Predict the structure of branched-chain-amino-acid transaminase.
Amino acid sequence: MQAIQFFNGKFVPKESITFSIDDVGVLRGFGIFDYFKVYNGAPAFMEAHLNRFESSALLLGMEIPFSRNEIETAIFKIIQHNEFPLSGVKVLMTGGASPDGFSAGKPNLVITNTAVSETNPSFYAEGVSLMTHQFTREMPQVKTTNYATAVRLEPIWKQKGHIDVLYHDGHYISEVSRSNVFLVEGNKLITNEEGVLPGITRMNVVNLAPQLGFVVEVRPIALSEVLAAQEVFITSTNKKVMPVVKIDDQEIADGKVGAKTKLLMEGYAKLLAEETKQPSFQN
């Protein structure tokens, strides 16, 4: 059975989705998206992701051409039709075809549902490493389609054996290109919020942490503090709670996955299983 997607009110194969070359999403990078996982037909934290999508549109002054109910109905229709055991849903809106090469036009709304694979389990058992790069994202609170810096840097971090890049301004960190950052110091869980995308997994971990005995501190974090931390991990829809054991050439503590990070990994796995009504999750 051929998979279907949603494009401006119609349900079509992915190959039938086309954009004008004059779309400001193509010409000027003027577009937003959000993304969440679906487990055996059950979306994970869909409402929170759609809330963020609406917030991104508002902050960019974009008008979503369909109602929340219409978008949710379309999402469930393509999920039920495609029947993927594990998949991702991406809700994407571009600025539309421009009359003059600069001004926005009528927005395009696309919702795709694509089968995905599980993340490499060794990333959770052994931890991962990050490369650092001095860079400040424009409008970090908006989930835009502009990932030019990360796409440019990807071949470099892969060549060096890293899985992603940690941005900083020369003193304070902001975020990883597609993830939020946490430090563990004793029973304190530290994360930042200024200059970062309000991650949905981040939000869930912040809410979960006190139940697991952590005191949450939300404040700016210096790069030097990250390098000296007892434990570091990153969070995102795809990565969930992923331990970081090395940054550039420096190991974090003893270079192994920490006990507190493991506790949060297990706690988030249970939360995700409850949300999607699955028997269990393993990192």
Q: What stands out?
A: Residues 259-276 form the longest helix (18 residues). The chain has a mean pLDDT of 97.
